[in-house]
């Protein structure tokens, strides 16, 4: 199985670097080196900054893609109307295992991010800056960067700046989770939808964007909209930071101009020539096939046109040697375990969908496939945060992208390939690692004994639901680690002794194949590569 991605993987650049400028000189640009590489930055008024963001078509780079200029104007308007100074938040909470581009910037170019955030704070008249991070390395880097600029959270400063730490979880990076953490609460979605531009940190209007967005703003402010537009596509100018992993020889973060063929980026990372599929946008994204990956270019519009998504910039191809549905099941179990546990679609629906996918892979036939489709459809649009919708998108995309493999599992009992684990998941030490993997055990029903008491569905509804006849509608459900205790209790409480937990069969060794990892530093690097 692939190891988890390091905090700072190999960094490459296609064309001339912008965000990664100076990476070929030092590992981390401190304030002195940052100014030597990028030069000083003059402040801009709120209107000029909003116009700049609009002229360079700057959208959020955290996944949602909301226009930054529109967000900036909304915060300014709310602040003026309420007579309250706004707050600026850098969202560096990168909790998805397949994403490292913001972590790279936070570790290696922290002052470029601060430049953009401080531009916005000055333009809005903000007196508070919050930096949210998930990892030790990013916390150390950002605290050092604030100290280099003489910024702290001490009273009496014109701008008070602080770093907060959020858990390395999928839901912790959502805007509402970051704001809740900044307010002293848990880094979880609050269960109600509020616009940060109206009420965010401390109840004040809050400008929240991810690390790359602020870095792009700083580049645009330095070189101007016209020069910024010379790079990339006219409709989506500039560069994009991508994290490329999965079935590749060299996992990396790469800065590319928009409009570069996606196939070139995949080749740069050593992806298979004809991948089975490419997951675009990360674990809340969409799969595209090898033909679409060959035709697409790096842009929101192009990827969307072929059924993909740019999202948070994660690109994950898989080769022909692994079972794509098995790979998806590993991710599905992790997504189910990442639930905030605050609403039914997330707490119950996602584990049920993961269990349904397991049933399909383990010979459940057409009935299991239909049950999986029903559960996934029931999850969409009903969650208290974006995690259920994003996870449902991943499930539906998986079912649509790998129809041949799906048919092999449903009709023939399998595709004949092992799951090699090329899609990165957290490793040991991750606080939810135990929950994010399947135990290998299965909860099974002995239909000759079952009397339809329904206690099992009450105890572990994530795995077993009751059908219209009052009997379990899902059986032979795979048991994730975080549900083992309740599954065992359901077995003990069954009055008819109809439930049992089946232990996993001995696993065959994973097949060897696919691209081999190259030694560190091997291979020819692209122009201006960082490491």
Automatic annotation (TrEMBL):
Q: Which PANTHER family match?
A: NADH DEHYDROGENASE [UBIQUINONE] FLAVOPROTEIN 1, MITOCHONDRIAL, NADH-UBIQUINONE OXIDOREDUCTASE FLAVOPROTEIN 1 NDUFV1
> Taking every annotated instance into account, which residue ranges of this chain make up the domain NADH-ubiquinone oxidoreductase 51kDa subunit iron-sulphur binding?
325-369
Gly residues: bias regions: 520-531
In its UniProt entry, what is this protein called? Answer: Ferredoxin
Annotated segments matching region Disordered: 181-203, 501-531
Record-stated family: Belongs to the complex I 51 kDa subunit family.
Q: Spell out the InterPro entries in the cross-references.
A: ComplexI_51kDa_subunit, Nuo51_FMN-bd, Nuo51_FMN-bd_sf, Nuop51_4Fe4S-bd, Nuop51_4Fe4S-bd_sf, Soluble_ligand-bd
Superkingdom of this protein's organism: Bacteria
| Pfam families per UniProt | Complex1_51K (PF01512), Fer4_15 (PF13459), NADH_4Fe-4S (PF10589), SLBB (PF10531)
Which key words tag this protein in UniProt?
A: 4Fe-4S, Flavoprotein, FMN, Iron, Iron-sulfur, Metal-binding
Q: Which cofactor does it need?
A: FMN; [4Fe-4S] cluster
